[in-house]
Design brief:
Layout (H helix, E strand, L loop, with lengths): L1 E9 L11 H13 L10 E8 L2 E8 L2 E10 L3 E6 L8 E11 L2 E10 L10 H29 L3
Antiparallel strand pairs: 1-7, 2-3, 3-4, 4-5, 5-6, 6-7
Protein name: DUF1857 family protein
InterPro entries: AtaL (IPR015075), START-like_dom_sf (IPR023393)
Pfam family, one: AtaL
Length: 156
């Protein structure tokens, strides 16, 4: 299943949105890489098992399920999470890119690539649509948490 969508971070036409700069958004994404628990409901533990300059290997524990992933950082541009395929987890990837499509507009582009089938006529098609909706909601929550992190770090 390939799924891609954009979540608006800054939109000059929406005065209700607190403007975030690229550095604040990037810091929030780094927080998600270092400890994903505030971003992923049900995640009980996030342990970094390897670290290099622009890469982390993590173990994520959801109850009895353990997911191992590799996080690749492209500083100030994007972050890619690649989970390993196991008997209990299908594997896949999520790339989150910071984009500025117009002056004053800042968005996050979420790109998912999974092994889950989504062909028309497939019995799994309805479930794929449910998964896409869940991903979208999770991504909205990611931006909400990034906003909370940014707000907590600002001097009032």
């Amino acid at each position: 299943m390939n799924f891609e969508h954009v979540v608006v971070v800054n939109d000059p036409a929406d005065p209700l949105l607190t403007e975030l700069n690229r550095e604040e958004v990037w810091f929030g994404l780094l927080c998600r890489a270092e400890d994903a628990r505030p971003f992923l409901p049900g995640l009980e533990a996030c342990t970094i098992v390897e670290r290099s300059t622009n890469e982390l290997v993590r173990e994520l524990r959801f109850g009895s399920a353990l997911v191992r992933d590799r996080v690749t950082l492209m500083p100030m541009e994007s972050i890619c999470f690649e989970s390993e395929r196991t008997a209990s987890h299908p594997g896949g990837s999520l790339t989150i890119a910071i984009e500025e499509p117009a002056e004053g507009v800042l968005v996050l582009r979420f790109r998912y690539l999974t092994t889950f089938p989504e062909e028309a006529g497939s019995p799994d098609r309805a479930y794929a649509e449910y998964v896409k909706a869940a991903y979208h909601q999770s991504d909205l929550d990611t931006v909400r948490v990034i906003r909370m992190i940014a707000e907590s770090g600002r001097i009032q």
